[in-house]
Structure formats: structure tokens, C-alpha cells
């Protein structure tokens, strides 16, 4: 086990001594700027795209993006297996130069709490002043034209974000879409943007994409890490970077169905480390607290937090278009695992997101055009409950059966993944209800699927 210190530097002039609070830690430096003031590792890419659209982020939002980039470097390049005592919980210190260090150090405890909730790791954040050469990172024109956009929406290329985009465009909003791409699991972003553009007008001017990443050997002595628990911290920071370009108050939309957002563990073994918390209500509330404390005029909203995925699709404002193109989106948690079976990339058909997708499309449309390459038909054979292909199916069957016998159990289970103390009794009841309905939706799909240890 090693504690790690990740030290962000801006560029060649950023050479001042930084006090490392744990001198025996493994220290890795990241230089975000080479030569000119353009940020590297993909952050400059999205800033350039925004500038081509006449949009210029604030310096504080740029600081948040650099923090998120540094967190992403730590999360993806410090291996849990070799660098932690329990093969999961890492100890990571982050050092970032910012424009207003006093303000950022004041919210360090809040941000550390967010990251711990999201990743399960122990984080410490330390902020210092930017070097005087880098007091300004965003070059803005003398006269800036106001932004034409009214909101920001995350666009992953998944079915939920695609539905969210359709509803916003149908509802008269004027959003700008923000995507992060990396591997084949995000290959649907451009095709989905293309069909949206054909339906609603050119999407190029309202879509920015970033590819933020770091060399595999960034951290000496550590293999890369593939759990990617901190990815939503980066996504939300890129959305905030974009929102800071807009005029006045704006909303950042994060389209995610209520069942996945809550992500109540279906199995006791998944409690904690194995349960992702990307859009959990507690985490979303902490983002709102962060925005408010920093003085960012943004509202973070998941418009589907009280809807199942099937309800999202059924109630879409352009259901015909969604039914026609929904199969082009990607939901699978491991879209590339089919390559191990020498099959083309595609949905596995049996992971939690695939099962929820199958159930929702069946509920909304009655037929599913998605290409499930590993398990095309859940009813075609008996699934092995002792292997990945049957584990989640069996978990959904058992949870659906439990909730059918004891519906009130949902009120207890929704508290397992994280606190709901930011919400009213009525909202908590609504979360319990969407969890119950979501499980029933998937339960209907899998109730007659044969699963047993083989």
C-alpha cells in the first residue's frame, strides 16, 4: 500500500516549491500546460470548441476543470489492487493551483466528502495560488457576444441522455450538449447527435466533446485502474465549465432514470465499493452545494429522478422518433467485453444496465431492436447463476419477489446506497416508489427466465 500525492502544475513557469503533507507518499507531477497557455490532456480541446462557438468559461470554472482533470488522473492511474491495503480504498492527496485558494481551501472538506462518497477512497485536497504567469487561462475577446443557449445537458450517447435531449429540444429549450468520450462505449455519441441534428436542425453548433485522459504509465510503479468511479466528477465539471459561458442563471441537466440514479444494491456484496453513485441524490445535492458556495449560478437537475426508464421512454415528447433511433444508443456497462468471446462490440444483454434497458424498451415499445451480442435472448437457455450472465438476472428476480411480498421494504432499501437527508418526506417517498416501480419493470422482464448454478 502507498499513499499517493498528485501535484498539478500549470506550465514551465510553475516551479514554486509545494509542501507535500505526506513526504513519504509516492508523488506524481502533472504539467497541464506546455509552452502556451492552452491546457492539455483534453481540457484545452473543449475550451477551444467553446471558443469556436463564441463561448468563454470563467477562470473559476477553469480551476474546477483542472481539479477534475487531476482527480481523473489519480482515479484512472492509481491501481486499487496494488496501491491499497484492502484492494479497494486508496489514499490520495491532490495539489492544485487556483485563482482564489482561500475560497477553494474553505470548500475542500465538502469536495473531499463528495469524492469519498463517489469513489470510496480517502481524499485530501490542497489548493495554492496560480503562478502570476497563469493568472489568466481563458483568453476572452474585448467584446463578448451573449450566449444563445439557455441550458447545458450532459450527452453520453446512452438511452437516457438521448431521451433527455429529445425532450429538451421538443420542449422549447435551447441547450448545449456536453460529452466526454474515450473508448467504444461512447462510440454512439456522434451517430446519435447526427440523427438529432437531422430531426431538430444542425447539432454541431450546440454539441461539444472532450477526451480527457492521461498516459497509462503516469504513476510510476502502478498499473492503470479501470473502475472509473470518479468519472462523473469530470463530467459534471465539464458541464459546469460550459455553463459558466452562459448568461445569468442556467440549469445543468443530467438525464438519468430514477432506478439507476438511486442504484440500490440488489446484492449485499455490492453495498459500497461495488455500487456506483454517479447521479445519486446525495451526490447531486453536494454538487449544488458546491456551486452555491463557489457562487456559480447553476442549478443541477435530473428531470427523471422520479421516473423509471420505461416511463421515460413511454412519456417521451417524440416517442416515434425515440422508438426509431433508440437502438443506436449504448447502455451496456462493459460494451467491449464481447471481444473476449471474439464477437463484435455490442450490448452483452445481461448486465444491470442492459437488463434495465431491455425491460424499459419492452414496456414502452413492445419490441427491441438493440443488438445484444452475448445473450440475444434471455429465454433461449438456462443462465448460470454462478457466473456474470446469471448473477444480475437472479438478483433482480429475488428483489422483485421481495418487494412484491413486502412493498414497504422499498422505504428502507432506498437509504442503503447513501443518505437522503437533503430531501423532504414526500420526496423520499417518491424515491422509494420509483425504486419499487423500477424493480417491478425489470421483474416483469426476467420473471420467467431460468437461472441456476450450472
Overview features:
alpha/beta, QatC, 454 residues, 5-stranded parallel sheet
Order of helices and strands: EEHHHEHHEEHEHEHEHHEHHHEHHHE
Name the average pLDDT.
94
The secondary-structure class comes to alpha/beta
Distance between the termini: 37 Å
Share of residues in strands: 5-15%
The tally of beta strands, per DSSP, is: 11
Biggest β-sheet strands, sense, barrel = 5 strands, parallel
How are the elements arranged and paired?
Blueprint: E1 4-9, E2 26-31, H1 43-52, H2 59-77, H3 80-83, E3 91-98, H4 101-106, H5 108-119, E4 122-129, E5 151-154, H6 159-170, E6 175-180, H7 189-200, E7 207-210, H8 231-243, E8 250-253, H9 258-262, H10 281-294, E9 298-301, H11 309-314, H12 319-325, H13 352-365, E10 383-384, H14 388-405, H15 409-413, H16 425-446, E11 451-452
Parallel strand pairs: 1-2, 1-3, 3-4, 5-6, 5-8, 6-7, 8-9, 10-11
Helix pairs in contact: 2-8, 5-10, 13-16, 14-16
InterPro entries: QatC (IPR049676), Rossmann-like_a/b/a_fold (IPR014729)
Protein name: 7-cyano-7-deazaguanine synthase
